[in-house]
Amino acid sequence: MSAPTFDVEKIRADFPILHQDVSGQPLVYLDNAATTQKPNAVIDAISDYYRTDNSNVHRGAHALADRATVKFEAVRTKVANFLNAPDAKQIIWTRGTTESINLVAASWGKANLKMGDRILVSAMEHHSNIVPWQLIAQATGAVVEVIPVDATGTINILAFDAMLDARVKMVAVGHVSNAMGTINPIEKIITLAHAVGARVLIDGAQAVSHWAVDVQKLNCDFYAFSAHKLFGPTGLGVLYGKRDLLESMPPYQGGGEMIETVSFAGTTFNQLPYKFEAGTPDIAGVIGFGAAIDYLNNLDREAAVAHEQALLAYAEEKAHATDGITLIGIAVHKTSVMSFMLEGAHPADVGVLLDKQGVAVRTGNHCAQPIMDQFGIPGTVRASFSFYNTFAEVDRLFIAIEKAKTFLV
User: Fold this and answer.
1) pLDDT at site 265
2) Number of domains, the chain
3) Which of the four, 210, 299, 315, 372, has the lowest number of CB atoms within 10 Å?
4) Where are the alpha helices (H) located in 228-300, listed in sequence order?
5) Which contiguous run of DSSP H or E holds residue 227?
């Protein structure tokens, strides 16, 4: 069932955390939509930086600072190439997808939104792609409106098209739903939004780990994602933006690095990308992230995603054959996420009992409370698969579910 050119056991050897016992049983890690695990190459790159190159970047007049700066900025270029961005200066380091979206909402929004303007977000968005827009709407008089999502977890593209007019200034949607795995038709969304002059921000946190993203081909205005969902370290994010937009946006935060000159008479700001990078960055994280990108670039990513999709198909087939399981999010186009309810059981209780059997899943509303409210449920159990997962681990998941049912149902 797995792609013949994809050696999952060889891949698993690169991820040390997978080789441990939890509750006396081998760990089955199925919480990849929350965070992915890190290969040895990433762990080693971070360790090597602290052992040999630890210094601040851009400002030091010594060998350690020079080495750290060269490695740090090389990763910015790697990320630009990874996204097919026109220029590395369009890659802004943030603390994660959340801060990237907040940056755009606060900076672009402050400069461009006014009373009566409309911001469209989908009903399935992560809270990080809802709350920042609510905050800037309150500050500017703009309004946030919801793009409908149907019972399968699919955006209603006809309803979206009907919502568009000249008052829509921003459309903010996820490339992939973290709660359900739905792959949204963002190419169509971007084209329709641009036809009325709206800008588009794509939350790519759940997409970049599965396939190559080409921001020029998409023609999105902004694209945001987090390193920790791409086999890199936590606390680091990326914001890509079109250059003219980034140039026109005011700084998001003030401090060191983002300035050109400072006096009490006034301050002038640095050029891109540093205008948006106040203070000492996560240097070790950036260098570790560079190793994650190198690791991915050395994989057969088509074979990896084929393996993930085979895992999903296998898991959903078993779910359909299991009494009491209801799948939540059954869009035609999905990444390797299986969200479900177990009849007569609260998701949190299911998660606890799976953990007692060494199976790690996510439970709750997945920071997507509005779509859970629409479906009338408190949340789901979410099993999310990566290319280092196996069919035997899917079997373990369902064995654990059957045992949990004996306690809960």
Assistant:
1) 83
2) 2
3) 299
4) 243-248, 283-297
5) none
**In a shared domain, residues 220 and 335:** no
Burial status of residue 24 (CB atoms within 10 A of its CB: 0-12, 13-18, 19 or more) = exposed
Active-site position among 131, 367, 377, 408: 367
Reported confidence tier of residue 314, pLDDT bands at 50, 70, 90: very high
The predicted structure's pLDDT at residue 2: 47
Q: What is the pLDDT of residues 107-133, one digit of tens each?
A: 999 999 999 999 999 999 999 999 999
Whether 256 and 202 share a structural domain: yes
Does residue 337 lie in a domain region? yes
Judge contact between 374 and 123, C-beta under 8 A.
yes
Of the two residues 253 and 146, the one the predictor is more confident about is 146
Residue 167 has which token pair? 């008052």
CA-to-CA distance for 153 and 291, rounded, in angstroms? 35
Tokens 């709660």: give the residue: 179
Q: Write the secondary structure of 63-84 as one string of H (helix), E (strand) and C (coil).
A: HHHHHHHHHHHHHHHHHHHHHC
* Structure-token match 């040390």, residue found: 16
Tokens of 55: 């210094």
Residue 1 reports pLDDT greater than 60: no
Cα–Cα distances in Å, from 213 out to 5, 100, 205, 206?
22, 17, 11, 11
Tokens representing 361 are: 């899943």
Are 33 and 338 contacting, i.e. CB atoms less than 8 angstroms apart?
no
Closest Cα partner for 34 from 373, 377, 382, 354? Answer: 382
Give, to the nearest 10 degrees, the angle between helix 40-48 and helix 283-297.
Answer: 150
Residue 217 lies in a domain: yes
SS3 of residue 88 by DSSP:
helix
- The mean pLDDT of the chain is 96
Pairing of strands 325-328, 266-269: unpaired
Q: How far is 16 from 81, CA to CA, in rounded Å?
A: 28
**pLDDT of 106 higher than 90:** yes
**Residue 217 structural domain:** 43-297
* Contact residues for 189 (Cβ-Cβ < 8 A; gap 6+): 155, 157, 160, 171, 173, 200
Q: Extract the tokens encoding 164.
A: 């568009």
Closest C-alpha among 66, 88, 23, 354 to residue 241: 88
Cα torsion 314, 318, 319, 324 to 10°: value is -170
> Would you say how long the chain is, in residues?
409
Boundary of a domain, candidates 257, 278, 297:
297
| Residue 220 annotated in active site | no
